[in-house]
Amino acid sequence: MNQVKKADPNNRTVAENRKARFSYEVLDTIETGLVLTGTEVKSLRQGQANIQESYASAEGGEIWLINSYLPEYLQANRFNHEPRRRRKLLVSKREMAKLAQSVEREGMTLVPLKIYFNDRGRAKLLLAIARGKKLHDKRETEKQRDWSREKGRLLKERG
């Protein structure tokens, strides 16, 4: 008998930076943890976070997520968090050294791709080491995307 697996409610994407793959050439990705307060976790579970304009920075031997938006949790009253505060990312020392080296020496950027809850219910951030695309690269990406969309339409029409 085939048993259908139900989607785990804990393992779901909360916020995604879809424009990052268009604006940046993603070279490597790393899963990092987030240091959050209780109201931030509850706010994330409501699914209204935004990481469109955020980035990560290596400062003082630590990596920080800057300019991410987690709205205030309405039921928290005076114990609420600041929506745009800097949040510390949890990575191993070896990964931290690798990230800091790629940013300083090679001119890469640390771009958050998505925030999600893993199987254990922990909030995780998928962080990309990326290089900014030039305008002609963005145009090429757009052409390829349009062509693949058109090709799909043609194949669907002709059977």
Cα Rg: 19 Å
Count of runs of 4 or more consecutive helical residues: 4
Q: How do the strands line up in the largest sheet?
A: 1-6-7-2-5-4-3
Average predicted local confidence, pLDDT: 84
Describe the largest sheet: 7 strands, antiparallel
Helix percent reads 25-40%
Low-confidence stretches: none
- What is the molecular shape? globular
Structural class: alpha+beta
Strand segment tally = 7
Distance between the termini: 33 Å
β content, as a range?
25-35%
H and E order: EHEHEEEHEEH
What would you say this structure looks like, in words?
The protein has 159 residues and is of the alpha+beta class. Helix content is 30%, strand content 30%. It has 4 helices and 7 strands, in the order βαβαβββαββα. It has a 7-stranded antiparallel beta sheet. A hairpin with a 2-residue loop joins β3 and β4 (62-66). The chain is globular, with a radius of gyration of 19 Å. The chain starts with 12 loop residues before the first strand and ends with a helix.
